[in-house]
Design goal:
The protein has 485 residues and is α+β, with helices and mostly antiparallel strands. It contains eleven helices and six strands. Helix content is 66%, strand content 15%. The longest helix is centred in the middle third of the chain and has 68 residues. It comes from Chamaesiphon minutus (strain ATCC 27169 / PCC 6605).
Length: 485
């Protein structure tokens, strides 16, 4: 008996030694693998010599050009000048503007969201397959053997939800409303871009007209200087008249330089909006003229804006989305019923038994009837979101009305200013002619000529400003009511 017990203990001691040695060998192997970085890890680790070289004084201050930026001045030198109409400018902006491109991608993204929501309502079919090998060591005496068993199993399952308290259908409607919101946002961004480009184009027209007006002022000032010099030679003029004409010419030169500077700024502004290359600048091809009439009254314009403005529609869509989200949140603690069908197939590979299969069909009820109040809280949150959308709708409506009223009153004011400025320009041109004739006849003064020149330049500028301000107000009304003509 003692001899058998001693042999049994010896066998147990040997088994323990074998298992301990096996565990130690596995652990040492894992530690060695962890201490030696892999090839990918060695590639990711920076070389210390390279880091030291990068921080040497000779490399401090050097900037790597990894953004494809221009490297020399010739890369950003203006080499191309293009004349374009307002319509051309808007078309280019719509093609190049990044915000518009992102908004279009958002529409595509949300459209895919509809398909994703619809897929949750469809029949779900899945396949699961398992291949496993099971075994256990058996020790007989001093010999260790292993008993193994290999199995392969597969399961085909189909599930279809027939009752979910409106969760899936609300998810689809919410996804559809999200697409509507994205399309409205695209329209909003396009309308804003249209307004910005139109304003920049009119600013460039104003700058170009200012250059032309000041060039005409220089021509008039040179003519006055020539008349004063001729009068001085004929003995009917004085040196004082010549000095006054020279001062007037110098002032006109300075005004032209300032106008040319504003012109360059306006060109850069519209080029930035159009997102063109660094080597092109633009000039206006359209002449400064009235671009049409507004055929709606103030009240009709306000109502039209309420109907068509994307911001108003977006708030309504947001409210609808919140309503669908409320239904989804409330359905979290509601019962869900689904139909299912399973087919199972299994085979033991280590023996000659045939494969075993089975199937099951039924209905399943799932009901999380207590979740600590999470479903109720999420539903209440969506109700608050609906109230927020209603308040934002009121604020947006008031802002739109103010935009319409401001543009409408500006349109009427500048319409009258155009008539007044046109008459004033004709009178200023006639006044300058008479002032020159009087000065040449010796019955007028150089001061009268200079005053007439100043009034003529002012009248020219006032007429251009009145026309452009009228066009700006007209464009604002068209943008505010989403009417493109």
């Amino acid at each position: 008996m003692n001899t058998n017990l001693t042999k049994l203990r010896a066998i147990q001691f040997k088994a323990i030694c074998v298992i301990s040695a096996l565990i130690l060998s596995i652990a040492s192997g894992m530690a060695a693998a962890a201490s030696i970085p892999s090839a990918d890890a060695r590639r990711l680790q920076p070389d210390r010599s390279m880091l030291l070289a990068q921080n040497t004084p000779s490399n401090i201050g050097k900037i790597n050009n990894d953004l494809n930026l221009p490297k020399i001045g010739a890369d950003v030198q203006i080499t191309n000048t293009k004349s374009l109409t307002l319509k051309d400018a808007i078309d280019i902006a719509f093609r190049n503007n990044r915000d518009v491109q992102v908004a279009r991608l958002a529409v595509d993204r949300d459209t895919a969201g509809i398909r994703s929501a619809q897929a949750d309502q469809a029949l779900q079919i899945g396949l699961t397959s398992t291949l496993q090998n099971q075994g256990s060591p058996v020790i007989f005496g001093t010999q260790a053997t292993t008993s193994t068993n290999s199995n392969v199993q597969g399961q085909l399952q189909a599930t279809y939800i027939i009752l979910d308290a409106g969760r899936n259908s609300s998810s689809v409607r919410a996804a559809e409303d999200q697409v509507k919101f994205s399309k409205l946002d695209l329209l909003r961004i396009e309308q804003k871009l249209r307004g910005d480009v139109t304003t920049a184009y009119y600013d460039l027209q104003a700058a170009d007209s200012s250059v032309i007006i000041n060039q005409a002022s220089i021509t008039d000032a040179k003519r006055s200087l020539s008349d004063a010099q001729l009068q001085e030679k004929a003995g009917t003029g004085t040196k004082f008249d010549i000095l006054r004409a020279q001062v007037q010419l110098a002032t006109a030169d300075q005004n032209l330089v300032n106008a040319q500077g504003q012109q360059q700024t306006a060109r850069k502004n519209i080029a930035q909006l159009l997102s063109v290359d660094d080597n092109t600048e633009f000039t206006t091809a359209d002449t400064v003229r009235e671009l049409g009439d507004w055929r709606y009254s103030l009240e009709e314009s306000i109502v039209l804006a309420y109907k068509k403005r994307p911001e108003i529609q977006q708030q309504l869509v947001n409210r609808s989305i919140s309503q669908q989200q409320q239904i989804i949140a409330a359905a979290a603690d509601s019962p869900q019923v689904s139909l299912f069908a399973n087919y199972n197939l299994g085979k033991t590979l280590t023996d000659s038994t045939s494969a075993q299969d089975s199937y099951s069909v039924g209905a399943q009820l799932s009901w999380s009837f207590w979740d600590g109040g999470a479903a109720r809280a999420n539903s209440d949150r969506q109700k608050v979101n609906q109230e927020i959308n209603e308040n934002q709708l009121t604020t947006q409506r008031n802002q739109i009305r103010f935009e319409i009223e401001r543009a409408f009153y500006s349109l009427g004011t500048n319409k009258k200013n155009i008539t007044t400025a046109t008459q004033s320009l004709q009178q200023a041109e006639e006044s300058l002619k008479l002032a020159r004739l009087r000065f040449q006849a010796g019955i007028g003064t150089q001061t009268d000529v200079i005053q007439a020149q100043t009034e003529l330049a002012t009248a020219r500028g006032n007429r251009v400003s009145a026309i452009l301000n009228y066009n700006r107000a007209l464009a604002s009304l068209r943008v505010a009511t989403v009417l493109v003509e």
